[in-house]
Amino acid sequence: MRTKLLIVLAVATFIFGALAGNSMAAQKASYVDVTPAEAKALIEKTPDIIIIDVSPAYAKGHLPKAVNYYLGDGSLDKAIPTLDKAKTYLVYCHVDRVSIQGAQKLVDAGFKKVYRLKGNYKAWVDAGYPIEK
């Protein structure tokens, strides 16, 4: 009887552990989308924030103090190992697909404080916020 009870407990522990693991996988780490106003406030309250433009159009205009790690040529992938995971990052582009991929790459690499500019560069400009060229 005792052996059967131990087997049942072991099986139950395995099943609950597997279910908990699946639940954890479903809660995959992610970045946070922020509006231009939220991004501006984040930049103002986080002086050491790293702003990453993952687009090929950096020279045409970018957020002040942004660095360009173009996703399409592998620049972001090359930069990730050199970046400080403890810092806060704001990622944007000119199109959602690319900014989403860039932000998620940081999260997948273990960065915890990653934000993505919702509406990207156009939304920032449309809000009347400054840019650099």
**Might you state the CATH topology name of the largest domain?**
Oxidized Rhodanese, domain 1
CATH class type of the largest domain: Alpha Beta
Number of domains: 2
The H/E string reads HEHEEHEHEH
Estimated structural class: alpha/beta
- Shape label: globular
What is the strand tally?
A: 5
Main pleated-sheet profile: 5 strands, parallel
> Taking Cα atoms only, what radius of gyration do you get, to the nearest Å?
21 Å
Q: Strand fraction band?
A: 5-15%
Mean pLDDT: 86
Low-pLDDT stretches are 5-26
Number of helices: 5
Strand order of the largest sheet: 1-5-4-2-3
CATH homologous superfamily designation of the largest domain: Rhodanese-like domain
Helix content estimate: 40-55%
Give the N-terminus to C-terminus distance in angstroms.
77 Å
Features:
133 residues, 2 domains, 5 strands, globular
List the helices and strands and how they pair.
Blueprint lengths: L1 H25 L5 E3 L1 H10 L4 E4 L13 E2 L6 H5 L8 E5 L3 H13 L4 E5 L2 H7 L7
Structure characterization notes:
Helices cover 45% and strands 14% of the residues. By secondary structure, the chain is an alpha/beta fold. It has two domains: 1-29; 31-126, Rhodanese-like domain (Oxidized Rhodanese, domain 1, 3-Layer(aba) Sandwich). Strand 4 (88-92), helix 4 and strand 5 form a beta-alpha-beta unit. Mean pLDDT is 86; it is low at 5-26.
Summarize the structure.
The protein is α/β, with parallel strands linked by helices and 133 residues long. It has helices spanning 2-26, 36-45, 75-79, 96-108, 120-126; strands spanning 32-34, 50-53, 67-68, 88-92, 113-117.
